[in-house]
Amino acid sequence: MSNYIQDRITQIRFQLPDTVRLIAVTKTVPAEVIRIAYAAGIRDFGENRVQEAATKQAELQDLPDITWHFIGHLQSNKAKKALELFQWIHSVDNLTIAQRLNQLATQLSVKPHVCLQVKILPDPNKSGWHIPQLLEDLPSLNSYQNLQCQGLMTIPPLGLDEFQTLEVFNKTRQLAQEINDQKWSNIYLEQLSMGMSGDYLLAVKAGATMVRLGTILFGARPS
Known about the structure:
TIM Barrel, alpha/beta, 9 strands
């Protein structure tokens, strides 16, 4: 297991430009395996569930230079705990949760880095802003002084071919540029969190700055 993970990390890093941040997605991965990835040089870890992350972080307190990324759907009642545990939240997917995070961040005196999750194509199985709604909500998002809105996150719908998937990633990059061209005072989308185990090379081709990889590093998760 140890050699497998170290070899996979080495191989994938060889494929990635220096500008791309490799986030190891450790949903269902135990703390001792996270230590293997850490020993191989990984410092960015992504979790989907707040409580699972809390348990692992307690076991890994001796590794203080880890950056934790929340990448799952965030429920309002878990928002405070997420702010306490994570430096990055990739899945801010509507104005209500953004407002809630901003209020709580004020109370906690934190300024989390956030990505705004967008749906480039309709997808009933994914959360996120449709493009027109996001553009309409930008003035409100810009007023949330305790959120550092630094990127967009997207997950393409299942069943797309490579051309369609690449198009989703390209449109995400173009949307970020369109928003940046509006010169908001508190929104600058320099990060593109897109690409997972099955499509990360397409995401990198389209300009991803963060890829979220789990299965390709750690093997298939238990069913």
